[in-house]
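On clarity, I found the account of how folds are encoded harder to follow than it need be. Since the whole study asks how a given chain folds, the encoding of that fold should be made plain. The format is easy to grasp once an entry is in front of the reader. For illustration, here is how one protein appears when written out as sequence plus structure tokens.
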Amino acid sequence: MTQSEALRILATGVNVFLTGEPGSGKTHTVNAYVQWLRERGIEPSVTASTGIAATHIQGMTIHSWSGIGVKEFLSEADIDAIASKEHVVRRIQRTNVLIIDEVSMLSGAVLTMVDSVCREVRHRPDDAFGGMQVVLVGDFFQLPPISRNNSAQFAFESPAWKELKLVACYLTEQHRQEDTKFLNVLGAIRSREWDQGTVSTIMTRETDGYELDEDIPRLYTHNADVDRINEEKLATLEGIGKTYRMSSEGAPPLIEALKRGCLSPEILTLKEGAVVMGTKNNPANGMTNGTLATVIGFEKGTNYPMIETFDGRTLTLSEVEWAVEEGGRSRAKIRQIPLRLAWAITVHKSQGMSMDAAAIDLSRAFEYGQGYVALSRVRSLAGLHILGWSEGAFQVHPEVGRKDDEFRSLSEEARIAFDQLEEAGERETLARSFIRFSGGTYEPEFKVFAEGGVSLPKAAKRSTYDATLELLKEGKSLEDIAKERNLTLGTICGHAEKLLAAGRIEKDLIQAAISDRLNASLPKIHTAFKKFPGKELTPIFAHLKGAYSFDELKLARLLIEEESVQEVW
């Protein structure tokens, strides 16, 4: 199935499982669909199974979005407690489209918990996820999460998956690997049809590693090998290392959860010349999780590391924060330099990365799929360097293989069925009904460029919320944004409220954009809100003798209501 065909199916409002090989364009398709929805006035909830994955799609974790947090089981009392949290209820009730990325990293138990919460909060106990459109995205050939009991249940085995009645959209185009011969190798491993010829092709890239460029990342299956290589490489560099220790604050169980999800180590030692990898996305400086760089020095006074990325950018990195926040309060946080040594990394940590070259040791592979994941990180056979291997490395989980065959077959059936709907003129009718039911405005369809990529109509404008969000991120005040966009302050306040409810901005960004006068008056206004509970602003306006406009009171109310839970772990 092409991206265009998948997008046309998504636009009808059916529940979808979007899958495909690495590089098939899953993330691009999701982004195109999100943009399509926003152009029609619908704000989807974009989530992911892990904090790392969430940063890639500018969303939040599904655990945070649903209010389940770090729980592994929900009792009826737990569900009732979540359903009493206003910020969670508001978010779920306003959602018409829920997207969950990297669903392969989500256990069946968690998917079922989210389903239970949505049914309860939306008061639709008989409808999967309370009746919203659910889009699950991922590839089960990726490695499952490392669980504490080593028994992760696949999401497709859960009752929630079955009740969603998902339409499978299996993308078959390839946009990452640039080498047909290499694509055939990966396809043979994925389809469990690899043979001696496949192995022989891979072994043409075997090397002892001694003559390889030291900047080429090494992938290993075990943490011990990674730590050993990185420590040995660091020790060969001259000079005294700079050491950065992770700081933490908050509830111990949450701190441990944050540490497990954080790619930066608790103790990070760097020297000039060290090869490092970024561990957190930072749109402000372009540093992303997976960016490779070399340490070129340390800033005077702060000792912060200065790095040069492999694409030539020079950056100075200070500590950043990974946090669990709820109700506007921080429940736990850790701080560390967003780097890790990267002469070597584990296959698990490499997931989601795309590399020009990598040296891979699969001699001690211990888990289904490790070989496939490692090889598929590389764009071409020429960039592949095999340090060691075993036949077990190329095995894939038999159940995953069986389900993948099933998803391919179901996807082809869906493609044919929706083509027939298209010919009958019924698919567009479904799309119109879905958009209107979701509170949006139906506009022209997706367009397909000649080269096969998917985009929106060239004449389509960005959504009004995106325009306000961009100016907020530039640090402009709400009043300045209103003037620049030739809109009323009330309209801009409404944008801020919806962006906050959708989890696209944090409360701090709004507070930074209000006037100094209003900031100074917040305690006084908040006291008035406590005296007059409820949603009506008129009593508060009268109590404060008209000193603050209704727009200012709305903003003040925004800043005292429980905000969206933001978790990065």
In short: Residues 88 and 292 are 37 Å apart (CA to CA). The longest strand covers residues 329-336. The chain has three domains: 3-174+424-455, 180-394, 464-559. The domain at 3-174+424-455 is CATH 3.40.50.300 (Rossmann fold).
